[in-house]
Hints:
Cobalt-precorrin-4 Transmethylase, domain 1, 11 helices, Methyltransferase, Cobalt-precorrin-4 Transmethylase, Domain 2, 44% helix, alpha/beta, 5-stranded mixed β-sheet
Amino acid sequence: MPTLYIVGTPIGNLEDLTPRAARILSEVALVAAEDTRVTRRLLSHLGIRPKTTSFHQHNWREKLDSVLAELAEGDVALVTDAGMPGISDPGSELVVAASNAGFKVEVVPGPSAVTAALALSGFAGDAFSFLGFLPRRKKDRQLSLLGSLASAVPLVIFEAPHRLRATLADMDAVFGDRALAVCRELTKLHEEVFRGTAAEALEHFDSPRGEVVIVIQGKLPETDADGLANAEDQISIEEELRRQLSDLKQDGVRAKDAVAMVAEAMGLAKNRVYQVWVELGREPG
Length: 285
């Protein structure tokens, strides 16, 4: 029975390709690649010339049957431009279809930007939450970040260089001074890891280049830093917080200015105030 091999490829440094992956790529009848031009550079580095075909998010529906037909005749390797297929990359559809059709499916583990960045961040990796690429629209991106604000485990996020500054600005608004690590061009010649806060990262990355992975530290156990004596005090402060923000929203004050004013006046963290501001925006008028 022919086998579909899910092959992990280097995320930058070609020396990270495993010997098993190199052997499989040299033996299969077909390599289904996210971008054949990128994959051919890897194959050329190995000195091999297997048959290749494109298989990506825009053509997988049209290509699925033909790749399965090739698989019926011989082994097929599934690769993406970098890292593991199916991890914020195309390929999962082929894996499911091949398995449902009765073909054997094997994984050939390889480099992963997710675990590489988590290891470099220095944050505990006993558990983590992978968010992939955040939404492109600012509002959707902020809501996604807010949904993970209370996560006690590190957050791992992919981002394109041209959207990095916008994403960091949203992270500053949502997470405040929470520690993070921005990992750029992993395993490549100009690899860079910046550690600090989102605001500090904004100052550092003026015109970023290369693919980026951001790791945000999980929420630390809360203390009584806000000076809240008991649950009744918390309810009272929450009501006052919502009242002040509602008044400012009705007066047409911008979110950034309103959050800054209320946070300073009440001695609260900006990310907490911003979260309430967003919640008010969801409520019917």
